[in-house]
Amino acid sequence: MSVFPRPLGAILFDLDGVLTDTAEAHYRAWKALADSIGVPFDHAANERLKGVDRMGSLDLIIGDRPGFDAARRAELAALKNGWYLEEITHFTPEELFPGARTVLEEARAAGLKLALASASRNAPLLLDRLGIAGFFDAVADPAAVAAGKPAPDIFLAAAAATGSSPALCLGVEDAAAGVAAIRAAGMASLGIGSPAILPADRVIPTIGDFRLGDYLAG
Fold first, then answer.
1. Active site residue 59
2. How far is C-alpha 212 from the geometric centre of its chain's CA atoms?
3. Which of 50, 91, 149, 172 could form a disulfide with 177 if both were Cys (CB 3.0 to 4.6 A apart)?
């Protein structure tokens, strides 16, 4: 039995892979970092980082190699972030996925609250570069939550920031870890991508395939 349509008070979006694609920018920054420390890194390794925060990603890249204490890891994370910021500085509204802006406009017109639940600490900058910051009532701060995805913390923080109960939220994600976080938060989940890898309540190929009337009870 489908959980949709249903009453909704807020939609909580992941950013990368849902509204835009920063994957290649992240890949180039992580690749440059890995090359600088002599660690093999390719697109397959990059896939393992999907939905994982910066320090968690660095831990996956370095593993248990010796010589990387906490201070060194913090230094490397800052270095990678600098390279990534150089990449996204060039983003414009043209980098929004087709249909993404329409989804945000229609949700706002329907009176729904919108929040961002991204693992990226650079999300506010990216929203500005994409020209969509004004649509969002809240941007959950990944630095302020105890645990990253697949823990529910970031989605619960986003829901609280909109004043909506989890039961009245729809979480939108493109990563399995993100979908797990939404479900753990007690929210309805929408996956963007392949149903073979996303255990969401419903999965659609792209954000452009989203039709609000399919999810929001009239």
1. no
2. 20
3. 149
